[in-house]
Here is the input.
Amino acid sequence: MTTVSITRKALTRGTLAALSGLLAGFASLAFAELVSAAVRPEASPVTAVGGAAIDRTPAGVKDWAIRNFGEDDKLVLQLGIVVTLALFALAVGLLALRHRRAGSAAVLLFGVVGTAAAVSRPDSTGLVDGLPSLLGAIVGAALLYVLIGRLTRPHRTAGQEQERAPADERDGEQANEPEQEAGWDRRGFVIAATAAAAASTAAGAVGRALNSRSSQNAVASREAVTLPKPASPAKPIPAGAQLRVRGLSPFTTPNDSFYRVDTALVIPKVDANAWRLRIHGKGVRRDLEFTYQDLLERPLIEREITLCCVSNEVGGPYIGHARWIGVRLADLLKEAGVKPPSRGGEADQIIARSVDGMRLGTPVEDVMDGRDAMLAVGMNGEPLPFVNGFPVRMLVPGLYGYVSACKWIEDIELTTFDDYDAYWVKRKWAREAPIKTQSRIDTPKPFGRPEAGTVMVAGVAWAQHRGIEKVEIRVDDGPWRPAQLAEQGTVDTWRQWSYPWKATPGGHTLTVRATDRTGELQTEERTKTVPDGASGWHSVVVTVD
Here is the structure.
């Protein structure tokens, strides 16, 4: 056999060994998906490992991901996990060609990692969450062992070799060995690989279908909801709250355009009929539990409230406005016997727990100081969308979402800041986070090229629970000029503004700043989002033609 022939066969076997690793990895994930249908969708390896990765990612890295990938950060993470697993699988396949058992053991190691990630998640239901990863890895390891067996040269004794040679000479055959003896079983490998690919594809498809069916009850429960009329309806939005300026954000953000920033790789779909909320903890005289229907039957309030994410950079998009309907949270706490610290209450922090294990900490004083903090069940006239927290979410006007806006909430525990650090506080974010006075230029866009003449500069400003008193515009290094303000909805809503700029040809920098109704001027000092929200003036550079 020539050196070229030997090299070609070695390359072929190496390629097929790598393919065997990929097939083993695919089988592991597919059968894990199938098993997760019997456990719960959140226990699948990609979701579990991705969630664990999010939990252990430093705040600065998460902030970078949100800044660069926006609401696609989860998709990027999932793709990264899949690519990493694919590379791992290729390497394991090549390892198995030389060390068959070690390669299979490496696949089992993947299962151990997935199991550990699943059972360590905050929303873990126990060791059973590790079954999908573990059983999937066993299937993958067994498959790799079988496929590599088809690529491994069979061993023959010396007597067999001597016995074989004369037979070849008697038959006048060339010294070419049969497929089995040439080093690997081509036919056996093709059959095993094809069968494995087909079975894995079927298992993955069935698993996805079953997991999808498990969410159908949740979808049906949402479709069956008819929101009651609120006992305390929102005041009509002033006619002048929405300016007619092209490129300006609408006063009310449509539900499908509302920003999303959370850590959930899989959007929880909760059956409203099975949902329960528990209120308990320090200073609670009587534990309370509510069903979804219990909340709908209570007096509901309807309010216009602007929400903002702490990850929103200066001029960023993670802010939106909606009309919310829900139950006043302070009323529920009072029924449980809770008092704010200013009135001698034992607890100064609410820990709101989500069905996905998220834990947010909110000051009790802010919830019970008279503002319209609520457990929301509706958004812009319809039940909450799943992505926005159906069946129930919490929101507190004037606080950044990471300390106030728990989606898919299922548990409220009263405690103290000294006794418990919530999820984001453990990651170096501030434990109390009132929204800062901010403003943004929506139009013209950065690096835009408006024509000379009157150019309408417009945007939004916000200081929830304080309201906006004044907005000013500066062109280049010129004086600050007052912008024209739209009508203020309430102190909990953002406020639109506009400024007719007499634009002259050339490059220009437009800068905006706001003053809230307490007289506080938006600070020029530029800070990052960590630990309690970004600050600084927003500017855009344009070239006037």
In short: The longest strand covers residues 506-516.
